Amino acid sequence: MDSSDPIRRPGGGLPRLLEIMRRLRDPETGCPWDIAQDFASIAPYTIEEAYEVADAIEREAWDELRGELGDLLFQSVLHAQMAEERGLFDFHDVAEGMAEKMVARHPHVFGSESRDKSAEQQTKDWEALKAAERAAKRQQRTLDGVAMGLPALMRAVKLQKRAARVGFDWPETSQVLDKLVEEAGELVEARDRLGPDEIEDEMGDMLFVIANLARHLGLDPEAALRRTNAKFTRRFNAVEDALAAEGRTPADSTLGEMDALWDAAKRREKSD
């Protein structure tokens, strides 16, 4: 191993990683795939890596978490390298900008404000600081700055929270439930009488109200759906395992047979 080459020197940390990225993107000697990428082509991978971090945390797979965090860091390094090549900013600017933001948003830690306040008050102060930052960026509309690239349910909740800050919100959860019933009726009507675009529109309205209901109940709809996805996966795997024990597959079975096995898996879960 050539110890004079910084990319082959263990313990090089972040400077080593930055140099690796610079070489991967070198137009003369770099990796053709890395060279061909741009912000738009890499963005989906960035989102995917963030979800893989969340997945490792949810599964408490701590050995995997280190690697997943590294993959996510690599995405930041890649975006910063592409920005540096365009003369926009570099990784140092990214890190410095985040440091300045955190200091500004925590005057009770890094400034003269008292730390003796509730978590609720700290949240209000945080939102006030973010509102001031948006104003400085000339984001004057209530919904300005809610990222378009967020998962749809997550973005729905953020939009609703912003609107709620200026009083545009149902005061009671029961009103949200009433709206959900209304939207379900409109979806049925669209299914029976209208076309695909109208059905999709009504389906979107219903999902938006479901996200609002989750918010009113103090729940994260993304987390709730992930939990149900995991439950569905467990139970369907149990159905497949039971069929496999009989030398069969779902394709060889009837819906009634699979439903019975599903119910059995459900009962086992509830009795554990």
Automatic annotation (TrEMBL):
GO terms for molecular function: ATP diphosphatase activity. It is an enzyme of class 3 (hydrolase). Residues 37-110, 175-237 form the NTP pyrophosphohydrolase MazG-like domain. InterPro entries: MazG-like_dom (IPR004518), NTP-PPase_MazG-like_C (IPR048011), NTP-PPase_MazG-like_N (IPR048015), NTP_PyrPHydrolase_MazG (IPR011551). Its EC number is 3.6.1.8. Keywords: Hydrolase. It catalyses: ATP + H2O = AMP + diphosphate + H(+). GO terms for biological process: dATP catabolic process; dGTP catabolic process; dTTP catabolic process; dUTP catabolic process; response to stress; TTP catabolic process; UTP catabolic process. It comes from the Bacteria. Belongs to the nucleoside triphosphate pyrophosphohydrolase family. This is Nucleoside triphosphate pyrophosphohydrolase. It comes from Roseisalinus antarcticus.
